[in-house]
Recover the amino acids of this structure.
C-alpha cells in the first residue's frame, strides 16, 4: 500500500472515532508499527491530526462516533477484480423469486451488477446496494431501519423490535473482516449485534471472502465456522484455508478472477 493510501486511511479513521491506536491502524493498513508511527509523525507535522501516546486523534474530534473498520470508500478499491469475480459466483446461486439478505460491504456491493437481470426479494442494511438495485433492477427491496453510518454506508439498529425479525430468507450473503479457525470475524460490537440478528433470519449463510481475508484477523468473532454453509473466494486461496474449510464441512466455490475479467470486458 502506498504512503498516500495509508495517509487517507489514517485520516479517515481519526475522523471516524475519537482516538485510534497504532495497533488499529496496523490492522487497517497492513503496514508495520514503525511505518504507522512515521506516518502519524508526518501527519502531525502537517497539522492534519494530533499525535497522542500510542496512536492519534483528530484535530477536530467527531461529534458522532462511527464504527471500527476500514471505510467503504477505501475498501471499495482494494482487490476489486477478486470482489467482482466472487460476487458473480454469488449471484449464480440465486433464482428468480428467491428471498435473500445481502449484508452491507464492498464485496457484496459488487453483486448489484449481475443482480440487475434478476427478480428477487432483497433485504439489505446497505444504503448503496438498495439505491443501486432500486434504480437499475426489478428486484423488490426492503431496507432495515436504524442509524446510517456514513463511513461504512450501512444502516444499523441496536433494537430487537426492528423490521429484521419480519423477513425470512433462504440465503444471506455477507463479507467478512477475516475468516479463521474460530469463525467469521468482524471489527465492531454494534456490527456483530446487528449481523447476528440478520444471520438468524436465513437458512444458509454464504460468505464472500477474497483470499486476503484468510490472513486478516480481528478480536471479535461474529459466528463459528459451523454456521457457514458456503464460502466463495478467489483462486489465490491458500492451501491451509482450503483444508480448514474442508474439515469444517463448508462448501467452497472458487471464482476464476481472470475469466470474470474477460467476461466483464466482453460484456462491456
Amino acid at each position: 500500500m502506498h504512503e498516500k493510501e495509508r495517509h487517507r486511511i489514517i485520516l479517515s479513521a481519526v475522523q471516524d472515532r475519537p482516538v485510534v491506536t497504532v495497533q488499529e491502524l496496523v490492522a487497517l493498513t497492513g503496514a508495520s508499527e514503525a511505518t504507522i508511527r512515521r506516518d502519524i509523525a508526518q501527519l502531525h507535522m502537517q497539522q492534519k491530526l494530533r499525535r497522542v501516546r500510542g496512536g492519534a486523534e483528530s484535530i477536530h474530534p467527531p461529534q458522532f462516533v462511527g464504527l471500527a473498520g476500514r471505510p467503504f470508500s477505501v475498501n471499495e478499491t482494494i482487490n476489486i477484480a477478486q470482489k467482482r469475480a466472487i460476487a458473480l459466483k454469488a449471484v449464480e446461486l440465486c433464482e428468480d423469486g428467491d428471498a435473500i439478505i445481502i449484508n452491507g460491504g464492498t464485496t457484496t456491493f459488487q453483486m448489484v451488477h449481475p443482480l440487475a437481470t434478476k427478480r428477487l426479494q432483497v433485504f439489505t442494511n446497505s444504503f448503496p446496494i438498495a439505491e443501486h438495485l432500486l434504480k437499475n433492477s426489478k428486484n423488490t427491496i426492503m431496507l432495515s431501519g436504524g442509524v446510517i453510518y456514513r463511513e461504512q454506508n450501512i444502516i444499523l439498529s441496536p433494537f430487537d423490535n426492528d423490521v429484521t425479525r419480519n423477513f425470512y430468507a433462504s440465503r444471506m450473503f455477507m463479507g467478512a473482516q477475516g475468516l479463521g479457525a474460530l469463525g467469521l470475524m468482524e471489527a465492531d460490537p454494534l456490527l456483530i449485534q446487528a449481523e447476528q440478528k440478520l444471520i438468524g433470519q436465513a437458512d444458509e449463510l454464504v460468505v464472500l471472502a477474497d483470499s486476503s481475508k484468510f490472513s486478516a484477523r480481528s478480536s471479535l468473532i461474529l459466528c463459528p465456522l459451523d454456521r457457514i454453509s458456503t464460502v466463495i473466494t478467489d483462486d489465490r486461496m491458500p492451501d491451509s484455508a482450503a483444508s480448514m474449510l474442508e474439515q469444517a464441512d463448508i462448501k467452497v466455490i472458487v471464482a476464476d478472477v481472470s475469466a470474470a475479467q474477460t467476461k466483464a470486458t466482453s460484456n462491456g
In short: DSSP finds eleven helices and 15 strands in the chain. The first helix runs from residue 3 to 16. The CA atoms of residues 211 and 236 lie 6 Å apart. The two ends are 29 Å apart (CA to CA).
